[in-house]
Amino acid sequence: MIIVDSREKKWQHIEKYFQQHGILYQIQKLDIADYMLEGQDKFVIDRKQNLDELCSNLCTKDSGRFWREVRRSREQKVKMVILCEHGGKIKSIKDVAEWKSTYSRVTGRQLAAEIYRVHIAYGVEFLFCDKRSTGRRIVELLEDTAWIEKR
């Protein structure tokens, strides 16, 4: 069963995928991230709606909650994956460098540098997908025990 954080917002498309495919899920407060497999608390997925949300988490004064989660994951030896639903041409961190925000002065190159910093310093993985495939990607990642072994 997948545990979904009770604070998760705008996830109806994921919930619809779970329901259409008979994926069992339960909503409860998670201390780290947005999704985990019940009984497997050493691997979590934190979903970001797009690069603008990721940018606000990494590059603004309001990033405290995100950084606390990242640090907590490392302290508790939890492998964290950030799944960003930006879609389009953004398929890897390298692609982020070419991104231009409509809301922020942060450049794609600056955001990519911050992503690499989090990845190197804390072991957080960053993956990208289209919003239509998020539910499927969450299920695939949670079922892939190789991620858990990489902690």
From TrEMBL:
One of its GO terms (biological process) is DNA metabolic process. Residues 1-88 form the ERCC4 domain. Gene3D superfamilies: 3.40.50.10130. GO terms for molecular function: DNA binding; nuclease activity. SMART domains: ERCC4 (SM00891). InterPro entries: ERCC4_domain, Restrct_endonuc-II-like. It comes from the Bacteria. This is ERCC4 domain-containing protein. It comes from Anthropogastromicrobium aceti.
